[in-house]
Amino acid sequence: MSKNIKTISNPKIKLEVLTQDDVKKIHEATLQIIEKVGVRFPSKRALEIWAANGADVDYEKKIVRVKPQIIEDAIKKAPPAYKLAARDPQQDLQLDGNHVNLGTDGCGVEILDINTGEKRTSCLQDVRDIARVADATEEVAFHWVSLSAQDTPVESRGLHELKAVWENSTKHVQTESVYNVEEAKAAIEMAAILAGGKGNIRERPMLSLMQCTAPPLGHDGGSLDAALLAAEVGIPTGFMTMAACATTGPITLAGDLAVGNAEVIAGTALLQLAFPGAPVFYAAAQTASDLRNGSYTGGGPEDFLFGAATNILADFYNIPLSMGAFATGAKEPNWQAGLEGGLSSFMASVVMSDMLLGCGFLHGSRIWSFAEMMMDCEIFSIVHKMMQGIVVNEETLAMDAIAAVGPGGHYLGQKHTRKHMRELFMPQFMDRRPYSEWETKKDDARDWALAKARKTLKEHQPDPLDAKISAEFEKIIKSVEKK
Amino acid sequence: MLEELYKEMAQSIIDGDSDISAELAQKAVELKMHPLDAITNGFVVGVTYIGDQFGKGEAFLPELVMAGEAMKAAIAVLEPELLKLGESREMLGRVVLATVEGDIHEIGKTLVGTMLSASGFEVIDLGVDQPADKIIGKALEVNANLIGMSALLTTTMVRQREVIEELDKEGLRPRIKVMVGGAPITKDWVDKIKADGYSEDAIGAVKVAKQLVGKE
Known about the structure:
Chain A is an alpha/beta fold.
């Protein structure tokens, strides 16, 4: 299996979904929200940091209101680019504004079993299996912990999941499932072992942490404390807003962006006030709520626009972005899943979101499907190809071949054709066969994608994690488990 | 004149205008109208209309929520008058709602509360991060026939089971029925913890609650 990772870089397509003036207005609205309305930080440590830095702190309601200058100065301390390290250094990822790195999506609760196809509750073995398939897949650049290991104790679940991914892949791991002090401390110990000491984490962070905000305009206390611990040692840390139009955010897209931005920017400023220069990232998966049932849609034109708008905001603050894409509401891999995956990933990639999340889920990031994962990877490959644009030069204008073929004839016999034919995109899962062949087999992308996942799972052997490290991880996990 | 007032009452609910619905309720009090007449012939007509429109796909969730809020505002004016008469509204049931311990996510739960109260349930919403003893204690205190619990995390949804086990230990079921909800809640989980019902959204929750109290 290839250890190569396919990332999008040097884009040839550009899109301006927000003008500089739009961004300025959203930024000013954001500062006004943070100063006048405030953001809730239900963590003693966070409130104390805010108070020490001149914010107006309401300890009873746990709401802080901060002058714009404090926020702006703090954000400027964040590093604009850094590396996400992998167990295999060849698989390190650049978060530098010129790479779009695809991750697996997380953190779901059910899976379509790879053998039976039945939907069931997720478990630790699923986390291992997904990590292993993702390890073999060149489109997947890093892991988000995909599923909740619901057969492990709640107090150490996030750690079991991390161990499972590291044992089954050499790629970088990001978790959204470590959101309290005890687990964060243990996860940092694990990252320290991998990096060769706590002091090396900043140089070789094989773990990054994503914390969800609690929209509108709030954070979770455990998440804040975990984020502060991680930022202190140089583990890349981001806050993700999922403020959704009509429910947790204003109905209008600009207002929803401003609310989400206020959550993320206030959280990011907190980390910079506490630990100036800590590697941080912006994360977002904003969407519109369904007007009939209030659900998180994870798709539709609003979602796609958010995908293209958010990196413009992250660029304005000069920090990397992790952008939610592929979050279809479809219940099985179908028209809707393909449409939503295609447009959301394109819109987020075309603006060069540094991290693109993520492949594999159905039903609003709740149900894992291996077929969906593989087909999402193919969508990413298509976007990757499109982003290379059209090369125009003497060679690609093909004047010699055109003269040789002349009017009539064909290009199949031309050396020029043979030389460049592998530059055309070759799909794995698109049906371009004769009708009669389909008619006898009646199979499609879903069957082929699933077959590929099954084969990968059966055959791929990831570079193993040192048994001694596994044993140390086990000890760390045991130490946080209730007796 | 009376018909006109009833119509205005219904319209205030359809428009989701809490200021006007409260004003009209006040007017009914001043006119010495029986509070139940104002509720039944006026405001409830609006709720039913919006509900029907919603069912047809012509009204949306925000209209439903605002109709619920406008209804609440009218009831807040009329209920004390009703009590003065020694009467009370006939409620479908009394529900204690909470987000479980360790979890601060409540929008879905709050939405369920709005829908339930608009549908004729008495709702006591305890808010977020509520331990089992608080939830059960409140249910006993108010003599609730239903407990509704929400959780967004797989690490906190286990608390739903704790509440159910505690209720069973105290022999409080089936007197108190339990419904659960939240993004990670699946049918498998509901079966496993032996909850009485669950719904994936707030509209469905009303139907489940009605079934559980035998009013469907």
